[in-house]
Amino acid sequence: GVIVYLTTTNELNPLKTSLTQLSRLLSNNPRPVVIFHEGDFDADDIQKSLSNILGNHTPLGFERIRFSNHLIQPRPVGDHRWPLKYTDMCRFFTLMLPNHPLLTLFTYYWRLDAHSYIFGPKPIEDPFEIMQKRQIQYAFIMASEEADYYAVGLWSFFHEFLDSHCLKPSIALRQTHTDLFGNYSLYIIFTNFAIANVSLFRDHSLIRAWLHAVDRNGGIYRYRWGDAPIHTLALTQFLSQNHIVRLRYFGYMHQREYICADGIKGEVCKAQVKPFLAQNGIEYLYYQDGCHPSPRNPLCHYYPEIKL
User: Fold this and answer.
1) Strands across the sheet with 60-64, in order?
2) Is 125 in contact with 308 (CB distance < 8 Å)?
3) Which of the listed residues 30, 97, 135, 279 has the most CB atoms within 10 Å of its CB?
4) Exposed/middle/buried for 133, CB within 10 Å: 0-12, 13-18, 19+?
5) pLDDT value at residue 72
6) 216: Cβ contacts below 8 Å, ≥ 6 apart
7) How far apart are CA 64 and CA 66, in angstroms?
8) Superfamily covering domain 2-306
9) pTM, two decimal places
10) Which residues pair with 138 in a beta bridge?
11) Closest Cα to residue 97, out of 219, 221, 230, 188?
């Protein structure tokens, strides 16, 4: 397996924290790390400083990428605007990363953001080994819900895709994505932490067709469709329940949201996460059971959980 980031030097400090936590918690099973970037990590001093954090036992690579000419991308629709770098990131994780030639060298990839911190009191078991032994295709750690203005037209477009392939919504899709009135529930897997079989989004014919349909539609740039709802729809529709798991045996923080390992609560949880609550004036959010807005989020406990 390989651990991947897409980031910029504007996020250098949180990236250093993220890599430090990887080095600590994966000290028994170091895994290669690749940082995708648009050229701002070319400097030798930056590369050496990050390599020193991981140490000699963890290979670190830097892969320069280039996004499409924005002059031919669809223009945003509606009142909400977002940086092109953000929509580029959504497209990268939706479609570009699984098809990148570098990933052909690996069975699994583990996506993290610069603000993604894993934590706990001691080194953890290697999630790649767990997934391979149990034949798991996809693992996540938190579930949330998308804002409706970031999913304009996505639900209807997905059903058009199903109809065009003579498919009906799966049981999992109906149970986790449909509210009492049959509307889109907007619940999503938080994909800022995701471990996936490399072949899943590249070689599964229907998932690949769905991702390319999304790309042709341009909804990522027009409406800021995120990789989280795009992938979550595909996962719940096309994968069986036992091929997806939620990892609950270590803590995780992303920006201001965090969850502690299963069974770690109260003062012990606060003590473990305290080193990462560094910014004054920020309201940090503890996700009970790793689920937002509450553990009643149907994605919260729908899939098997690995607690060790």
Assistant:
1) 60-64, 33-37, 2-6, 108-111, 194-197, 138-140, 244-247, 305-306
2) yes
3) 97
4) exposed
5) 58
6) none
7) 7
8) Spore Coat Polysaccharide Biosynthesis Protein SpsA; Chain A (3.90.550.10)
9) 0.95
10) 196, 244
11) 230
